[in-house]
Design brief:
Radius of gyration: 19 Å
CATH architecture of the largest domain: Orthogonal Bundle
Helix content: over 70%
Distance between the termini: 54 Å
Number of strands: 0
Largest sheet: none
Order of helices and strands: HHHHHHHHHHHHHH
CATH class of the largest domain: Mainly Alpha
Shape: flat
CATH topology of the largest domain: Tetracycline Repressor, domain 2
Number of helices: 14
Number of domains: 2
Strand content: under 5%
Length: about 300
């Protein structure tokens, strides 16, 4: 396995920013904000901003700790070899310390400025991603994404609890939707980068169980996601704007998943276009679904 360079050139702010996984953070911030706005309680704008900032800092800290721990793995993968540590622009200690400062700081500020329950859930989400998923699950089981999906499902729950101070069925459903969305989203990516994971010994489902099993699992989880996404409307937690949007968006998600699931590649067909389309749509799907949740609440 390739190892990260040990004598890096000086890092600048862009490298520290890259440690926070900005693309992932944008989704975290958005779903956290949607959870806060959809909650039935309004808090002052400065407190709302503080809560979302803490969610962002916590996610960035967990991402930095993930990159610190996986630096050697990242160095061996084409998709990640240019990240700050394997790219030779930062040493691992700096990344670790940066991650710890962001993580601890975000939890402390959330607890002091917002409420203890939201701070506790934020701390749990950081530990879940940086320890349970990164250190324990990812290198050991092909179900890493299924179990580890909870790490990315926390933001709307945290946002809701930041506003209300308690947990009800509605934010739990928002958590469950992202939890169920994560496997087909990530397995679509894993299908067209599986050679990278195989090279560094990470037991992603396509590597361990093969493409057919992975495609079947994508269809199963996407089929379960459709009724789950409609449940907030069914229990009366949202109106028709969200409900109709959930049906349409989730049906399209399922259709693309079935296309991927029933596809059997030949030796000459390696474009992976349907898999890439599903991965791209899965990101749009989550933004659109939670955007509909906010529109429903505001309108």
């Amino acid at each position: 396995m390739a190892t990260a360079p040990t004598i890096p050139i000086p890092a600048d702010w862009r490298d520290f920013y890259a440690l926070t996984k900005p693309r992932v953070m944008s989704l975290v911030i958005f779903t956290g904000l949607c959870g806060l706005i959809a909650a039935p309680v309004r808090i002052p704008l400065i407190l709302a901003f503080t809560a979302i900032l803490c969610i962002a800092l916590g996610a960035g800290g967990a991402a930095a700790l993930n990159m610190w721990w996986e630096a050697d793995i990242d160095a061996g993968m084409k998709r990640t070899k240019d990240r700050p540590i394997p790219g030779g622009r930062m040493n691992r200690t700096a990344a670790r310390d940066f991650g710890i400062v962001l993580s601890v700081g975000s939890v402390l500020i959330m607890g002091l400025a917002i409420n203890v329950l939201s701070a506790a859930i934020l701390a749990l989400s950081i530990i879940y991603y940086a320890v349970v998923y990164t250190i324990w699950l990812k290198p050991r089981t092909p179900q890493n994404i299924v179990i580890g999906g909870g790490a990315g499902a926390f933001p709307p729950l945290i946002g809701w609890v930041a506003a209300t101070g308690d947990i009800t069925l509605m934010p739990v459903l928002l958590f469950a939707i992202i939890f169920m969305w994560t496997p087909p989203h990530f397995w679509a990516l894993a299908l067209f980068v599986q050679s990278d994971y195989a090279k560094v010994g990470i037991p992603m489902l396509p590597v361990v169980a093969g493409e057919v099993a992975t495609r079947n699992q994508i269809m199963i989880y996407s089929a379960l996601l459709l009724p789950l996404s409609v449940l907030p409307w069914w229990i009366g937690g949202t109106g028709a704007i969200y409900g109709i949007s959930a049906i349409v968006l989730s049906s399209l998600f399922l259709a693309l998943s079935i296309r991927v699931g029933l596809r059997r590649r030949t030796g000459t067909d390696d474009t992976m276009k349907p898999e890439k389309q599903l991965f791209g749509w899965s990101i749009i799907y989550l933004f659109a679904l939670f955007g509909a949740l906010v529109a429903d609440r505001l309108i």
